[in-house]
């Protein structure tokens, strides 16, 4: 995390007609300052707080007049926030959609108003809204790959003959929850030692993750592996395991995604095995991509971020730079 930017992101161009893109997308005038909307979905965890800060910090260097809101975990409130930003005359919208389907009307309303929209860190249902038509591009990670990498690390590092696995899912209906589950489930199924006995949402929240883990432990006290869709739920699961007399890192393997400071410290302390990075520092990448678009460049439908993986081998050298 040697500087909180994702300017080194690699670009993944998906097959799509460039002519159709040019005809469908609203233009963005090159000018000195832009009024930019960033309707955050919630601020109840370090990841979201770090992402918002990244946009606020970038506003100073990218000449943005930034409007930010907090939907408090409500998709309906996030839609209303987008409506308000459209009414305020924003030039550009950077939207992290809380869920795949409820935010589609907001995306299409922004497009109808002639406002270029970039989806950030989460996407929407591709069957109902498409990059290059309804919005410019998705800036974010490959969530399926994140889940797959966690599963592959687990397969390689779990030493037992059989493993009872429980999964703490993210927000129901969100793209990272859907994709991180698919990536992990598909990969772990290739090793017959592993059986997923329960998969339940913890809504990406630490306390909810703890509560769900406490309930799952009553039904599955013999759990060997806990896979959490983010570090906050993983930390909550560790708390529940310890309260139940289990020893995370010794008799239970905890694996996760995000790369937060608390997760890296848990790895250093031997309580967590791995976390795959999912960086929240989108501000600089958003600025760079917006400027490219204003200059008339063709923007990839998916500006893909490459994520690192943190284990005992490198957690200590990265923890001080984590959020």
From TrEMBL:
Keywords: Signal. Residues 42-298 form the Periplasmic binding protein domain. Pfam families: Peripla_BP_4. Its main location: other. PANTHER family: D-ALLOSE-BINDING PERIPLASMIC PROTEIN-RELATED (PTHR46847), GALACTOFURANOSE-BINDING PROTEIN YTFQ (PTHR46847:SF3). This is Sugar ABC transporter substrate-binding protein. It is found in: Cell envelope. Belongs to the bacterial solute-binding protein 2 family. It comes from the Bacteria. Residues 1-22 form the signal peptide. GO terms for cellular component: cell envelope. GO terms for molecular function: carbohydrate binding.
